[in-house]
Write a structure and sequence with these properties.
The protein is mainly α and about 675 residues long. Helices cover about 60% and strands about 5% of the residues. The longest helix has 30 residues.
Length: about 675
C-alpha cells in the first residue's frame, strides 16, 4: 500500500491533543478525544491494508499478526519494563505493587479490563495516578486486531459484494450499544471493545468504500468541483475534531453522542486527504506534522508514565503538579524518540535477520511478563512495624448509593490495608426511600446528613451519637464526589444524568416531608471553591432553600488535605520515613489550604444572614502549632488517605459533634 503523508499528520493532530490534555486538563478539556481520532484512523489503515493485500492475492493471517507484533510489541514491552524499574526506584512499595499488577494485564492486552475492575472511571483519582492507564486504548485496538481480520475474511468469502454494508451495520449496532451503555454502564461502555469498536468500524467502512474488492480503487478527482468538495470536507472535519477538543469534558456523558464530533470529523478529514491535494492535506503533510505523526505511537506510550511520575515527585516536594507534569512530558518525549529510533524502527524490519528480531521481541515480552508477575506477587504491608492500629472506614455502611463501589476503593493504593466493613444488602438507590434511616427515636428523622464521601467518613460517629440520644437519623450521602449542594453530576452511583437529578429532587422532597431539627452538610469544600458560580453563591442558594426546612443547618468545615500523599498510602509513607529517622515525619497541608480557609470565611459570613446556620470547625483539631497536620496520636492513625479521616480520626472530634447535635435537637444523653 502506498505511503500517504497526511495520515501521519492526522496522527499528529491526535497525539498533540492527548499530550496537552495529560499535561494540564484545563488547557484542553477534550484533548482525550484524540484517542477517538486514533481509533478511526486505525480502522481505516488496517482495513485498507487487508483489502489491498486481498486484491493482490497475497493476504496471510500469519503475516498480518507477525507484522502487528513487530510494529506494536517492542516499544510497549520496553515501556512496561521502564515503568517497573522507575516505580521500584522512586515510588513506595504499594504503588510499585499496583504498577506491577497492572503491567501484567497490560502486556497481555487486557489493560482495559484491569482499569474497569480496579481503577474505575477514566476521570477518577485512581485512574489519574496509575502509570499505565493510557494502555486501555491499546488493549481495545489489539483486541480489534485479534478478531477483525478473521471476521473480514468471512465477509469477503460469503458476502463479497456487501462488505461495506455489513461494516456499516456493525458500526451502527455498536454505536447503539454505546449510546445505551453511556447512560446505564458508563465505565464499562468507556473501556470495552463492543461499545467502542464502532469508531474503528467507521474507518473500516471508509476503507472498504475506497478499496473495493472488485473493480478499480477510488482515485483522487481533479475536477474543480471535486477539489472544492475536498476542501470543504477537510475543513469541516478539522472543525469537528476541534469542537471535540474544546467542548467535550469530564462532565459530558461520554462516549455517547459527543463522540460523534471527533470520529465523524476524522472520517471527513480522511475522505478529504485521500481525495487529492487540498490545503488540509498539504498542512498535514508538513514536515513537523509528519515527523510528529511517525513518533505518535512512541509518544503515546511514554508520555503518560513520565507525566504521572513527575506529578507525584513534584507533589511530594511541595512543587506545583503542573511543573512536574511539564518535566515528565519533556523526559517522556526524549525517551519516546530514543525508543522509536533504537527499538521500534530496527525491530519492525521485515528483511534479513527477522527470526533473530522475533527472538529479541519474545525475550523482552517474557522479561516484562515475569518482572510484572514478580512485582505483583510481593504484596506489601502498609505498616510492617505495627506502629499504628489498622484504620477503618465505614462509608459503605451509610452510603445511600452503590455500596459495591467501595470494592474499588479498597483495591486502590491510598486505601490499601484500610478495613472496610461489609454493608448489609440493600438497593443501590435507597435514596428513593429516604436513604439509610435508623429509627432510634421513632418517627421521622430528626437528624439528616447530606454530602459526599467526606460526609460518609463522619457517618458512624453521627450514627453512634444519635443512637445514644435516641434520635432517628437519615443518611443521604454518597461516595464518588456526590455534592452536599443540590447540583449532583453524573457519576457511578447513577445509571444516567436523569437519575442524578432525581436524587437531588428526592433529597429536597425528604427535607420538605421531615423538617428535621438538624441537617449536617459535609463535603470537600476546596473542590467547590473555584467552581462557577462561586462558593459563596452556591452556599447561599442552598441555604435559602434548606434553612426554612430545618431547625438548624450545620456546616462542617473540611479537614486539611496532606500534601505529597495523592495516590500514596499515607501509613506507608509515614512508617517508611519513621524507619529512617526514628521520628514521625511532619506532614503539611497541600496548596489548596488557602481555598479551604476561604470557604470557612465565606461560611462564617453567611451565618450572619441565616440565623439557624452554624459552622462546625472540625478542621481545627487536626492542625499542630507549627501548621503541620496532626495525622496520628499514639497508636491511633487519624487519616484513611490524604483527605479522608479514618473512624479513629472522626472519633477525635466526637465532642464537637455531640454538642452541635445536642443544641440543635435539645436532646440529652
Amino acid at each position: 500500500m502506498a505511503y500517504s503523508a497526511p495520515l501521519d499528520g492526522i496522527r499528529a493532530v491526535a497525539i498533540l491533543a492527548v499530550l496537552v490534555f495529560h499535561i494540564s486538563r484545563s488547557s484542553l478539556r477534550g484533548g482525550f478525544t484524540g484517542v477517538d481520532v486514533f481509533f478511526v484512523l486505525s480502522g481505516f489503515l488496517i482495513t485498507s491494508i487487508i483489502l489491498h493485500d486481498l486484491r493482490q492475492g497475497r493476504f496471510s493471517l500469519r503475516e498480518f499478526y507477525l507484522r502487528r507484533i513487530q510494529r506494536l510489541l517492542p516499544n510497549v514491552v520496553l515501556m512496561v519494563l521502564a515503568v517497573l524499574v522507575l516505580w521500584a526506584m522512586f515510588m513506595p512499595p504499594m504503588a510499585n505493587f499496583q504498577a506491577g499488577r497492572h503491567a501484567l494485564w497490560a502486556v497481555f492486552n487486557l489493560s482495559n479490563f484491569y482499569i474497569m475492575k480496579y481503577l474505575g472511571g477514566y476521570w477518577g483519582n485512581a485512574a489519574e495516578w496509575s502509570p499505565l492507564t493510557h494502555t486501555w486504548s491499546l488493549a481495545i485496538e489489539e483486541q480489534f486486531y485479534l478478531l477483525f481480520p478473521t471476521c473480514l475474511l468471512l465477509l469477503v468469502r460469503f458476502q463479497r459484494g456487501r462488505v461495506r454494508s455489513w461494516l456499516i451495520a456493525a458500526a451502527v449496532l455498536s454505536f447503539g450499544l454505546c449510546l445505551a451503555g453511556t447512560y446505564t454502564y458508563p465505565t464499562a461502555t468507556f473501556y470495552l471493545m463492543p461499545t467502542r469498536v464502532w469508531e474503528l468500524l467507521i474507518g473500516a467502512a471508509l476503507a472498504a468504500h475506497r478499496t473495493p474488492l472488485d473493480g478499480p480503487e477510488a482515485q483522487p478527482r481533479s475536477s474543480p468541483g471535486a477539489a472544492r468538495a475536498g476542501e470543504i470536507l477537510g475543513f469541516a472535519g478539522l472543525g469537528m475534531i476541534l469542537v471535540g477538543y474544546i467542548c467535550i469534558h469530564d462532565g459530558n456523558a461520554f462516549p455517547g453522542l459527543w463522540s460523534l464530533a471527533p470520529t465523524l470529523g476524522t472520517a471527513l478529514v480522511l475522505g478529504s486527504v485521500m481525495n487529492g491535494k487540498t490545503i488540509v492535506s498539504r498542512w498535514l503533510s508538513s514536515s513537523f506534522m509528519v515527523k510528529t505523526g511517525k513518533l505518535s505511537y512512541s509518544i503515546y506510550l511514554w508520555h503518560w508514565p513520565l507525566i504521572t511520575l513527575g506529578k507525584a515527585l513534584a507533589d511530594w516536594y511541595g512543587i506545583p503538579q503542573l511543573y512536574g507534569a511539564l518535566a515528565g512530558a519533556g523526559v517522556g518525549l526524549v525517551l519516546a524518540w530514543a525508543a522509536y529510533v533504537l527499538v521500534e524502527q530496527p525491530l519492525r524490519n521485515r528483511g534479513a535477520g527477522r527470526s533473530r528480531r522475533f527472538a529479541i521481541i519474545a525475550g523482552g515480552f517474557a522479561l516484562a511478563a515475569c518482572g510484572a508477575m514478580a512485582v505483583s506477587l510481593r504484596a506489601p504491608v502498609a505498616d510492617p512495624a505495627h506502629l499504628f492500629d489498622q484504620p477503618s472506614f465505614y462509608g459503605a455502611i451509610y452510603t445511600s448509593g452503590k455500596a459495591s463501589l467501595t470494592k474499588n476503593a479498597s483495591e486502590s493504593i491510598d486505601y490499601y490495608d484500610v478495613y472496610f466493613p461489609k454493608p448489609e444488602p440493600r438497593p443501590d438507590d435507597s435514596w428513593r426511600t429516604g436513604g439509610v434511616v435508623h429509627g432510634y427515636g421513632g418517627g421521622t428523622p430528626k437528624v439528616v446528613v447530606l454530602g459526599s464521601s467526606h460526609a460518609l467518613m463522619y457517618s458512624k460517629l453521627i450514627d453512634d451519637i444519635c443512637r445514644e440520644r435516641h434520635l432517628t437519623v437519615a443518611f443521604l450521602a454518597m461516595d464518588y464526589g456526590v455534592p452536599a449542594f443540590f447540583q449532583c453530576p453524573d457519576n457511578p452511583n447513577f445509571a444516567s444524568p436523569v437519575e442524578a437529578r432525581d436524587f437531588d429532587q428526592a433529597r429536597r422532597k425528604w427535607l420538605r416531608d421531615w423538617h428535621p431539627q438538624a441537617v449536617l452538610v459535609i463535603d470537600r469544600w476546596d473542590a467547590w471553591a473555584e467552581r462557577k458560580p462561586g462558593f459563596d453563591q452556591n452556599l447561599r442558594s442552598f441555604l435559602q432553600e434548606v434553612s426554612p426546612l430545618a431547625g438548624r443547618v450545620l456546616f462542617v468545615t473540611q479537614v486539611p488535605v496532606i500534601t505529597g500523599a495523592v495516590d500514596v498510602n499515607l501509613r506507608e509513607l509515614v512508617t517508611r520515613r519513621f524507619s529512617r529517622s526514628r521520628m514521625l515525619p511532619r506532614l503539611y497541608p497541600d496548596r489548596n489550604e488557602t481555598l479551604r480557609r476561604r470557604t470557612v470565611a465565606i461560611a462564617q459570613s453567611a451565618a450572619k444572614d441565616f440565623p439557624n446556620f452554624r459552622v462546625l470547625r472540625a478542621d481545627l483539631p487536626f492542625y499542630q502549632g507549627d501548621g503541620s497536620v496532626k495525622y496520628a496520636c499514639g497508636r491511633a492513625f487519624f487519616y484513611a488517605n490524604d483527605n479522608h479521616l479514618s473512624s479513629m480520626g472522626a472519633e477525635s472530634v466526637r465532642a464537637l459533634f455531640e454538642q452541635a447535635i445536642a443544641e440543635a435537637t435539645l436532646s440529652k444523653p
